[in-house]
């Protein structure tokens, strides 16, 4: 099953990813940044001929670029957002720091096991606060 993400250039799309009985594929187009948070299940990121498996408790940041797809396995849950560039641009400051930020957000990023990292950071900060 293919679900194209269709919106005008100004619309921010956000939706929950709910468990499906079959594989669901989102086709991603245009000058938009796409963010996926996979709570459970597995997914596969498809960029051209390459693919990358994404497991549960992961975050995927996809900057604008050529056509890509995110294939969600049956039972996958989470959230996704699709943000047009015109909404991200005003938040990047001018100057050198802005250039650095633009360079970073233009990169594909996949963070795995984000819930465990958050838990570790919270535990460290709680230990510091007790001392």
Q: Would you kindly provide a brief summary of this structure?
A:
The chain is α+β, with helices and mostly antiparallel strands and 131 residues long.
The CATH superfamily turns out to be Jelly Rolls
Q: Mean pLDDT score, rounded?
A: 80
- Report how far apart the termini are: 54 Å
Largest sheet: 5 strands, mixed
CATH class: Mainly Beta
What count of structural domains? 1
What's the arrangement of strands in the largest beta sheet? 1-3-8-5-6
Unreliably modeled segments: 119-126
Give the helices and strands as they follow along the chain. Answer: EEEEEEEEEHHEH
**Which CATH architecture would you pick?**
Sandwich
Strand content: 35-45%
CATH topology: Jelly Rolls
**DSSP helical segment count:** 3
Number of strands: 10
The percentage helix is 10-25%
Q: Compute the CA-based radius of gyration.
A: 17 Å
Structural class: alpha+beta
The best one-word shape is globular
Mind explaining what this structure looks like?
The protein has helices at 85-88, 96-105, 114-130; strands spanning 2-4, 13-17, 24-28, 32-40, 43-47, 50-54, 58-62, 68-72, 77-84, 109-111. Helices cover 24% and strands 40% of the residues. It has a 5-stranded mixed beta sheet, with no helix packed on it. A 5-stranded antiparallel beta sheet has the order 2-9-4-7-10. Residues 119-126 have low confidence and may be disordered. It is built from 3 helices and 10 strands. It is α+β, with helices and mostly antiparallel strands and 131 residues long. 14% of the residues are buried. The chain is globular and about 50 Å long. The protein has a single domain (2-130), classed as Jelly Rolls (Sandwich).
């Amino acid at each position: 099953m293919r679900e194209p993400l269709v919106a005008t250039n100004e619309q921010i799309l956000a939706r929950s990813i709910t468990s499906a009985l079959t594989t669901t594929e989102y086709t991603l187009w245009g000058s938009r940044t796409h963010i996926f948070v996979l709570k459970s299940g597995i997914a596969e990121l498809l960029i051209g001929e390459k693919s990358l498996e994404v497991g549960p408790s992961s975050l995927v940041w996809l900057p604008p670029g050529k056509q890509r797809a995110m294939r969600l396995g049956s039972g996958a849950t989470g959230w996704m957002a699709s943000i047009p560039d015109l909404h991200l641009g005003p938040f990047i400051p001018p100057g050198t720091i802005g250039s650095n930020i633009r360079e970073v957000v233009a990169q594909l990023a996949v963070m795995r096991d984000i819930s465990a990292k958050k838990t570790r950071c919270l535990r460290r900060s709680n230990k510091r606060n007790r001392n």
